[in-house]
Amino acid sequence: MKRTLALASCLALPLMAAPAFAQSSNASGTMPSNDATSQSTMGQTGAGMTGENQTGMGADQGSMAGGKLTSADRRFVDKAAMSGIAEVQAAQLAQQKASSDQVKQFAQKMITDHSQLNQNLTQTAQTLGVTPPTSLDSKYQSQMSKLQNLSGEQFDKAYMKDQVRDHEQAIKLFRTEANDGQNPQLKQLAEQSLPILQQHLQMARSDMKTASR
């Protein structure tokens, strides 16, 4: 009897231990799941932080790409704008004071062409964060004052002489920018404007000879 009871007890112990072992295994089995969730959360957070950092770096690179104009490019914008304004104002004066129809026709073309060139320059400069001058400096104001005091043939001669000189200077300015400028948009603007300015110079030289007769 005693041997039979002892044997039964020995057989029962493994059976009783099995549920406990299973529960222990399940309890320890939940830990990897928590670790995986934690790692996933950390990975998502890290990815979010990386995305934000990359966005910030992209913005910084964009700002650097925009950059500021070099001093030479900025001088080109200022001088080209001033020259263009002077061309339009002098031509408007010529429409009133010139005695020659040929000079008046030339002046009208200057108004049309230089108004468009001025608009192109202003739009390009504004995309680069630069505002060109909108009024004449003392040099051009003095030139305008001299023309205002003239009339008839004297005005025609003086105006056309100024036009030859001013267009020679403008061509030199735009050619320098086209060749040596650092900003691609300004270089392209200068290249596209040069043929128009060269045409104006040819016309001015021809009309100056006629006005000087």
Give a written overview of the molecule.
The protein is an all-alpha fold and 213 residues long. The protein folds into 2 domains: 67 residues; 143 residues, Ferritin, core subunit, four-helix bundle (Ferritin). It is built from 6 helices and no strands. The longest helix is centred in the N-terminal third of the chain and has 65 residues. The protein is elongated. The N terminus is likely disordered.
Structural key phrases:
213 residues, mainly alpha, Ferritin, 6 helices, disordered N terminus
The topology string of helices and strands comes to: HHHHHH
> How many strands appear in the DSSP assignment?
0
CATH superfamily of the largest domain: Ferritin, core subunit, four-helix bundle
Rg from alpha-carbon coordinates = 41 Å
Shape descriptor reads elongated
Please write out the topology.
Layout: H1 2-66, H2 71-97, H3 101-127, H4 138-148, H5 152-180, H6 184-211
Helix pairs in contact: 2-3, 2-4, 2-5, 3-6, 5-6
Short description:
This protein has six helices and no strands. The chain is an all-alpha fold and 213 residues long.
